[in-house]
Amino acid sequence: MFDLIIRNANLPDGRMGIDIGVRAGAIAEIAPTIAAEAGEEIDASGCLVSPPFVDPHFHMDATLSLGLPRMNVSGTLLEGIALWGELRPTLTTEAVVERALRYCDLAVSQGLLAIRSHVDVSDPELVTVKGLLEVKEKVASYIDLQLVAFPQDGYYRAPGAAEALERALDMGVDVVGGIPHFERTMDDGARSTAALCRIAAERGLPVDFHCDETDDPNSRHIETLAAETIRHGLQGRVAGSHLTSMHSMDNYYVSKLIPLMAEAQISAIPNPLINIMLQGRHDTYPKRRGMTRVPELMAAGITVGFGHDCVMDPWYSMGSGDMLEVAHMALHVTQMGSIENKRALFDAVTVNSAKILGLEGYGLEKGCNADFVILQARDPQEAIRLKANRLFVIKRGKVIADTAPRVARLHLEGRPEIVDGASYAPIAQIDNQ
Ligand SMILES: [Zn+2]
Predict the structure, then answer these.
(1) 338, 357, 376 — which closes off a domain?
(2) Where does 39-185 have alpha helices with state H?
(3) Fewest beta carbons less than 10 Å away: which of 98, 134, 269, 424?
């Protein structure tokens, strides 16, 4: 007897027609046919059943603040940072908590059940840290929220940031952040990288920097981050977010850099939506895309997870908590269009990001947590193409969100009455998988 059986599921690895049996919040059996009864059954009808989406890079302290106190007119990263600087002194813990909880509602509806959020530690009162620690506790039963102590205005550049960052870690923030390209000099950026890796080593914490989020090919803090990772024995616990300068770097230099990153087991977290908006702003034409070298990083065995970064905040006015929209943009910007590529991109918003966050019990194996998303799509490539509807979101075997199937009714003589966009994949594409 199971608590729940999901029948006739397609899995991201290509297995089809699979039953998943759940007992006590965990996967008790996963097999072509489970001949047993369950308290509840869901017929997936050949739809894709995935573990939940994971966002490895977000700013939950700023989300849904679009328009406060004004809009970002230039649309640049630097005006975004300036605008956040205007908003920050007016923030209250209550407002931060309320907006973050609203975002978490949206995330759940999108099957996004684990988020690593940076939290700005530049304000000495740490209003944002207090707010997000409260949110982390409030959402713990349905979202794994991991927090990064992020010195937005620079670890050395902003007075008091070093002390505030340590206080935030003392309060329970999980990860050490940094922003070396925003320090006053390259040298200060390198020194901040060394200092922050030392703090992480001493406290036994992971590291996740905003690293080289610039079009300047001479921004090479990722090299220092890799070297400091090895120096402190932090291999496998360090991530570089953005890494957009790698787009503009000299190929010869990159041929040395990527193996160094692989040696340090650094993960890469590109943020396709925000960086296609922010990068290349000083270019006329041709305009650079500013996306780090995703296929090359993946080919070197580096774990790549895509982040959403921002939703309706001073930096980005768009976004909907949809990690498939993130993968969709990544596919276009990286030109990764093959079937294998699409599977890899789907992994980048699910299993790879789960690995970066160090989530336990994540996956579709016996014994894993019974956390799933059932998508209105038959496979990962269709899920990305359609930014597929989330039919069911399940946490520890319980449905925590559901959405009616997305279908349109046609009112045309001699044509079908119902159009289901998910049924349009040509048979030849399916047969060729
Ligand atoms: Zn960010």
Answers:
(1) 357
(2) 77-87, 93-109, 127-138, 161-170
(3) 424
User: Going by C-beta distance under 8 Å and a sequence separation of 6 or more, which residues neighbour residue 61?
Assistant: 91, 96, 100, 117, 118, 119, 120, 128, 131, 132
* C-alpha 35 to ligand 1 mean position (Å): 47
Residue whose token pair is 């200060």: 188
The domain tally of the chain equals 2
Distance (angstroms) between ligand 1 centre and the Cα of 99 equals: 17
Rounded to whole angstroms, how far apart are CA atoms 313 and 88?
12
Q: How far is residue 295's CA from residue 303's CA, in Å, rounded to a whole number?
A: 11
Cis peptide before 416 (omega within 30 of 0): no
Tell how far the Cα of 259 is from the centroid of ligand 1, in angstroms: 25
CB atoms within 10 A of CB 172: 11
| C-alpha 1 to ligand 1 mean position (Å) | 45
* pLDDT per residue as tens digits for the range 2-40: 999 999 999 999 999 999 999 999 999 999 999 999 999
Q: Which CATH number belongs to the domain containing residue 23 in this structure?
A: 2.30.40.10
Instruction: Tell me the CA distances in angstroms from 218 to 205, 253, 385, one per residue in order.
Output: 29, 10, 36
Q: Is 183 a catalytic residue?
A: no
pTM above 0.90, yes or no: yes
- Of these residues, 183, 213, 223, 325, which one is catalytic? 213
C-alpha span between 418 and 310 (Å, rounded): 36
